[in-house]
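Form P-L/3: holo structure prediction, ligand zinc ion.
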Amino acid sequence: MLGFMHFETIDKKSDLEVLSALERFVGRERKRKAQFLVYLSVVDARKLYAKEGYSSLFKFLTEKFRFSESSALKRIQVSRLAHRFPFLYKRIVDGDFTLSALSRLAPFVNTHNSHLLFGEARGKSVREVEKILARWFPQEAVPDRLEKSVKDLSEDKVHVSFTAGREFEKDLLEAKALLSHKYPKGRLEEVLGLALKTLLKDLKKPNSKASHIPRGMSDCDSASDLSSCAPQQRPRFYRQVPKPSRYIPRGMRAAIRERDGAKCQYISPEGQVCGETHFLEIDHRRPFALGGPNTEENLRLLCRTHNVLAAEIVFGRMGRGT
Ligand SMILES: [Zn+2]
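OUTPUT (holo model):
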């Protein structure tokens, strides 16, 4: 391919060169997207797709150009919206609106609300735009009865749907983030499945804990929380002076997670805070291998990417030319 550079060629450039080239590409990409929408509007207005032998603009995009159905729909919706409100082309070029965000807004915008709605949604993510729409155009909650919420799909699959409150959504997102190591895809079935298994295990537990502790064994031998036991009651292994260990007690992990707002604390030299909420790990600011202690001051939350980056900065590789 003429002018196309492969990984090995680009990998020889400095970090700064790579990043500024990428930024130029993002700018050009947005401009191309906006220009594509204008062309699409003309094709739409002149019904050129029909001239080309397609029954609709949708078929023209999916069959002739192999766009996915959702991608074609999104482009058609946004090109019609931008044709009605032409200032949107510049907003797309400036990165104020993504096509996905505009396609969410499209069915709700009219000449009366456009000014306020576009104003509020400007610069927002798709998720945030959906929240704005839910506030502006609240929908009736669907009353759910268990038997109506579960539909048979096949012998071993069902489809479950229900309406939930914001508190449920908050808990769900938090559980999904906490489980991101275990379930990287974060599928609802996995997260809620584990929640149900844990709940059932808990519900089936016998009420009295004492009744299950064999005679002659104190509560402290079996309880996982040892903090409530007097030191002389604690099992022998707990009384030994511990060697320095990488292990960070659960309580401290929770305290660090809380302090750091359950977000990656990495800050770029330009001041961009990462803030990732998935794949979080606890990082030693001064590495454990270099004598960094397990204290709250020395520990912080980083996402996996930034934990690896932090280690590479200390122990080698990385950082070329910038
Ligand atoms: Zn991060």
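COMMENT: The longest strand covers residues 280-284.
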